[in-house]
Structure formats: C-alpha cells, structure tokens
Design brief:
alpha+beta, Rec A Protein, domain 2, LINE-1 retrotransposable element ORF1 protein, Transposase_22
Length: 281
C-alpha cells in the first residue's frame, strides 16, 4: 500500500512538473505576444502622429492651391442658361453683343480675350445647357459686368432666364452648392441674404448682418433664431469627412504593461494545487 501511494505521488509530481513546463512555455508565449502588441501600439501611435501631420500639411497645401486657382480665375466669369447652339459660329461675338445689349454697356469696351462653352460633351436636348466661360482682359470690367447683371436682377435671352456668376474652383462650387436648400427657404419667405465669396452666407438681421462659414452653421443658427421652422428645415448634403478627420476619430487606448502578472498568478495557483494534492496523499 505504501509503495502504491509512493508511485501515485511520483506520478502526480511528474504530471505537475509537466503542467508547470507547459505553463512556463505558455507564459513565455503570452509575454512575447504582449511585447509584440505593445511594440505595435507604440508604432501605431507614432505612425498616427506622422500621418496626421502629413494630412494636416496636405490640407494646408490644398487650401493654398484652391486659393491660387481662385486668383487665377479672378478675371473669369460664367453665364448659365444660354441655350446650346444659339451662339452661331462665334461664341465670343454673340456673348459680347448679348452683354452690351442686355446690360446697357454699349459704350464699354469689354476686352473679352477668350469665350467658350464649358468643357465636356454636349448635353441632350432637354438637359441644362453648358455654361459659357468668359475671360476678360481687365478685372474691373468683369466686375462691372457682374454688378450690372446683379443690379438688373433678372436677365433673359429669348424668354429663358440666364445667370451671371464668378468662376469658382470645383471645391468652392461644392461648398456653395450646400447652401442651396437654405437659399430656397429664405427666398420663399422673402428674407434678405447674400452669398459672399468664396463660400459663405450673410443674413441681414435688424441688429446687423451675420456671416456664416458653413451651411450647417447657418441652418442651426437660423432655426435657433426662429427664421426657419423645424418643419421647414431641409438638411443639405453632409460634407464628406476629410482623411484627417476620420483618422482623428480612430481611438486606441494603450493598456499599461502587465507582463508577468498572468504567469505569476498561474504559478501561485499551481503551487497551491500541488500542496493540496500532496497533503491529501
């Protein structure tokens, strides 16, 4: 009996030793994995900072590029609503005659250097016509034409209303387009507003004008002031999140290192189990 108990004790000790070896191997692998995760967290945090700096620089460069493009277009003007093919053989001559006649600028030398339809395929018959792009030699003449058109408020060509506007870069065009639902509501209510360049909205309150820098800001403040009812509010398209904005929303909390804690706790439990088995034997 004593011999059998001794053999059983040796067998238990051998199995416990094997478990201890397996546990040691597992602990080593877990600690190695923790180290790799910690290294990856450090790399990820550093990489995120570098990418954020690069994206911030890219946004700054893009803003400067848009500004330069706007300056390059400062002598340009666009006319919207001119029917296709109405200009005949010379777009420039047709537009020059149209401007002088409709805006009462017959004695003004316009100095139009180039004039053509917006690039792109000719639209179908019932679609909106392409805009006409005009490049003036002098900035002041372009501004004179725009002011004359805006002062007249409504300009028609063969019964079709045409619109005069600045020639904005694509980025600014998208920002200005976001104000469309607000402008529609304000026009329906007969409220006075203005859309100064590049992409803002000015509303004239009794206390004075207020300028908004985004469509969301304008809609929120006008609803707060009671100028636009909640039921009348039409949300415009949400501006797409920038890469920098999306990256900043990504959160990853680094956990303080606890290497060795799991292994020490497991070894302590194993020692208690071994003592309990030996005492029972």
């Amino acid at each position: 009996m004593k011999k059998e108990l001794g053999e059983f004790r040796e067998d238990v000790n051998r199995q416990l030793n094997e478990i201890a070896m397996d546990l040691k191997t597992t602990v080593c692998r877990v600690e190695e994995a923790e180290q790799r995760v910690s290294d990856m967290e450090d790399w990820s945090a550093g990489a995120k900072d570098v990418i954020c700096q690069a994206l911030a620089a890219q946004e700054s460069i893009q803003a400067k590029l848009t500004d330069l493009e706007s300056r390059a277009r400062r002598n340009n003007m666009r006319i919207y609503g001119i029917p296709e093919d109405i200009e005949g053989d010379s777009v420039q001559q047709f537009i020059e005659n149209f401007i002088k006649t409709e805006l009462s600028l017959t004695d003004t030398e316009l100095g139009i250097q180039r004039c053509h339809r917006a690039l792109g395929p000719k639209p179908p018959q019932n679609a909106n016509p392409r805009s006409v792009l005009i490049y003036f030699l002098e900035y002041r003449i372009k501004e004179l034409v725009l002011r004359s058109a805006w002062k007249k408020k409504e300009v028609y060509l063969n019964g079709t209303r045409v619109y005069f506007d600045q020639d904005y870069p694509a980025e600014i065009q998208k920002e200005r387009k976001a104000y469309a639902p607000i402008r529609k509501l304000l026009k329906e209510k007969g409220l006075r507003f203005h859309t100064p360049p590049p992409a803002k909205l000015s509303f004239f309150f009794d206390s004075g004008p207020v300028t908004y820098n985004s469509s969301a800001e304008a809609m929120a403040d006008l609803k707060k002031r009671g100028m636009i009812a909640e039921r009348d509010s039409v949300p415009g398209p949400e501006p797409p999140a920038t890469p920098l904005g999306r990256l900043k929303k990504i959160s990853w909390e680094k956990v303080a290192p606890r290497r060795g804690a799991h292994g020490e706790r497991a070894r302590e439990n194993l020692r208690e189990f071994r003592c309990d088995v030996v005492d029972k034997v």
